[in-house]
Design a protein that fits this description.
The protein is of the alpha/beta class. Helices cover about 35% and strands about 20% of the residues. The protein has a single domain, classed as Carbamate kinase (3-Layer(aba) Sandwich).
């Protein structure tokens, strides 16, 4: 495969909705297989990959129905949904011969290793794909915040946020036809303008540690590799 990677170690944040395909909820096996194949290609470039996957395709903690529940209970259900997605992606990756480990912030030793930072780093050093499940293990924190935190902990060089939109826009492009795509933007400008592609806790954590964020469209085949190789796709947030 042509092109050298721009990063040696990355953290990839996948939205749970990205795993749904065209369905309204659940996991589309074809989509998971395609993502796994792209990750295999990137791993073969020598890039160390850590992943955080959302759970919105199974349970969304801020949905109307969930708002009627206790917030802590709803958040714990969302964390467990991320474990389901993590196991699905692990199965697809290992089916392609990619050694994968799931580490969970909520202990469930029969299905995943407990999250220990040094263990996660060691797995990465051995070129295993590491899937970091169950968010931070605490309520009131989104998987975006978990992705930013884990990226710092494993010393990733970039946070790649893969969504179903091709970058950051001035408004929601689905509802506002006048919305304009932003190619590059500073952390503070994101916060000042209230751009909601990621929660403010995650943005602030990346800003404090000068971790660049690249937001790109996951649905286009090859975009994960392009992002890892440093091509200008999507939108980039930096100092």
């Amino acid at each position: 495969m042509s092109g050298r990677p721009a990063y040696r170690r990355v953290l990839l944040k996948l939205s749970g909705e990205a795993l749904m395909g065209d369905a309204e909820f659940g996991i589309d096996a074809d989509v998971v297989s395609r993502i796994a194949d792209e990750l295999r290609e990137v791993s073969e470039l020598g890039v160390q990959i850590a992943l955080v996957i959302g759970g919105g395709n199974i349970f969304r903690g801020l949905s109307r129905r969930a708002r009627e529940m206790d917030r802590v209970a709803a958040d714990h259900m969302g964390m467990l949904a991320t474990v389901i997605n993590s196991l699905a992606l692990q199965d697809a990756l290992e089916g392609l011969g990619v050694t994968t480990r799931v580490l969970s912030a909520i202990e469930m030793r029969s299905v995943a290793e407990p999250y220990i930072r040094r263990r996660a780093v060691r797995h990465l050093e051995k070129n295993r794909v590491v899937i970091l499940a169950a968010g931070t293990g605490n309520p009131y924190f989104s998987t975006d915040s978990a992705a930013a935190l884990r990226a710092m902990e494993v010393r990733a060089e970039v946070l790649l946020k893969a969504t179903r939109v091709d970058g950051i826009y001035t408004a929601d492009p689905k509802s506002d036809p006048a919305a304009k795509k932003i190619d590059r933007i500073r952390y503070l400008e994101v916060l000042d303008r209230g751009l909601r592609f990621m929660d403010t806790t995650a943005i602030s954590l990346c800003m404090d540690n000068e971790l660049p964020i690249v937001v790109f469209n996951l649905t286009e085949r090859g975009n994960i590799r392009r992002a890892v190789q440093g091509e200008q796709i999507g939108s980039r947030v930096g100092p």
